[in-house]
Amino acid sequence: MGTIIKNGTLVTAQDEKKAEILMENGKITQIAAQIPQAGHTVYDATGCYVFPGMIDAHTHLDMSTATATTADNFDTGTAAALAGGTTTLIDFATQEKKETLHTALQNWHKKADGNSHCDYAFHMAITDWNTEVCHEIEELKNLGVTSFKLYLAYDNLRVSDAQLYEVLVAVGKAHGIVGVHCENGDLVDELTAKYKRAGDFGVSAHPKSRPDYVEAEAISRYCYVAKAANVPVHIVHVSTKMGLAEALKARAQGQKVYIESCPQYLALDDSKYELPGFEGAKYVCSPPLRGTKDVAALWQAVENGAVDSISTDHCSFRFDTQKSMGKDDFSQIPNGLPGIEHRLAVLYTDGVASKRITRSRLAALLSENAARLFGLYPQKGTLAVGTDADIVVWNPDAQWTITAEKMLQNVDYTPYEGKKITGIAKAVFLHGELAAENGAVVKRHLGHYVARGESEYF
Ligand code: DUC
Ligand code: ZN
Ligand code: ZN
Question: Is the CB of residue 61 below 6 angstroms from any atom belonging to ligand 1?
Fold first, then answer.
């Protein structure tokens, strides 16, 4: 027997309608104005919006850098994601130097398999490109990995422009997509050294070492290299007005350009780096938080449809023992913010409740567009018969306040501490099972690996 969600308003990226949904054996089997009870369990969604399960396409769980391992692993990170309304996440498996992509993928499966509370898939971050790795692109496609990530900053991760071109060509042939971290690595290194030489070791030097043109130059370069390779562009975590303008310029010239931003670039700004003491370290991520003009430009792009998706870049490090490694030198602060739990809450509050975007636009930004670009659609990303019964029942009337004390993220702070939220994920269904309620996981470890198909270049 299945479960019928009754009395709610269904929201997809296309429209809203009053209807009932029947979930059986993990799938949506019927959507109709009225569905006879016929022995099914009934879930009453009176006063609620019924969204497709949200997809967070940018997370770093159980990831080690040279100096630290993220505070959230797949157990804690996917629990937090699910409780907040995310039913599928796409994490960045990362190739170590000299490692094959197959080994990297196996490593990430070991971290995630059996430990996950929501469904998960992997992008593959390529850090050591060579002919053998090139041959692995097609093979990874057969294992459900069709999207790749390249860094243009971070000395231990970044690739050259020639390598960028070669990866784009190879992934293009596989009908996949390459997401690129766009910051000019040489400039970041030079500016970081410049501030340190001048004796400026404080947190406020972090954003100064990664100004907007560092992002804009890298976005522009990626777009031109993609033009040469004749493939679409996907820019992750766009944070600046200037970077956005470069992406839109390429789009206006006829290139396919997909733009991702993150909640922290919309809900926070760079005044956090001026907080007293070492408090600003809580907000150190790359790209850094930006000025209010950048925030306004990004919101405009979210509102007018220019931004395609909003994912978290969740990369949590403890304040007391990890961020603190950079107490005397900003360049030693591990980069990254927690946010996997609060994306829907923050975007519903600042987007929908603040009347900037519609609920359908929210569904596009947080679910459907990522599903399309990353080969999950229509299994994920919408509400339709035959698709996975991953559903968020959203109570728009709830009022609550984000606080680290009450969150599931395994970290000792949240950048959204004290933020007042409108709405809550009252119920989260994963494969038709009630898996989370009002911020708590009620059925554990239901998450599966999801093998993905080719990208849809929508
Ligand atoms: N930036 C971060 O802040 N953390 C993870 C990786 C990245 O690019
Ligand atoms: Zn990045
Ligand atoms: Zn990232």
Answer: no
d(CA 155, CA 347): 33
Distance CA 338, CA 340 (A): 6
> Identity (one letter) of the amino acid at 13?
A
- For atom 4 of ligand 1, the residue with the nearest CA is 336
Chain-centre distance of CA 207, in angstroms? Answer: 22
What are the φ/ψ torsions at residue 109 (nearest 5 degrees)? -60, -40
How many secondary structure helices (H) and strands (E) does the chain include? 13, 19
236-248 mean pLDDT: 99
Say whether pLDDT at 66 is over 90: no
Ligand 1 pocket check for 286: Cβ under 6 Å: yes
Does the beta carbon of 6 lie inside 6 Å of ligand 1?
no
Q: Name the residue with the closest Cα to ligand 1, atom 2.
A: 336
Q: Which of 251, 290, 263, 318 is nearest to 70 (CA)?
A: 318
Mutate to test the pocket of ligand 1, among 62, 283, 286 (most ligand atoms within 8 A of CB): 286
Burial class (CB in 10 A: 0-12, 13-18, 19+), 155: exposed
What is the spatial order of strands in the sheet that 27-32 belongs to? 27-32, 20-24, 3-6, 41-44
Contact yes or no for 390/429 (Cβ under 8 A): yes
- What would the pLDDT profile of 245-288 be if each residue is shown by its tens digit? 999 999 999 999 999 999 999 999 999 999 999 999 999 999 99
Share of the chain above pLDDT 90, in %: 100
Ligand 1: atom nearest CA of 237 is 8
User: Which secondary-structure segment (H or E) carries 399?
Assistant: strand 391-401
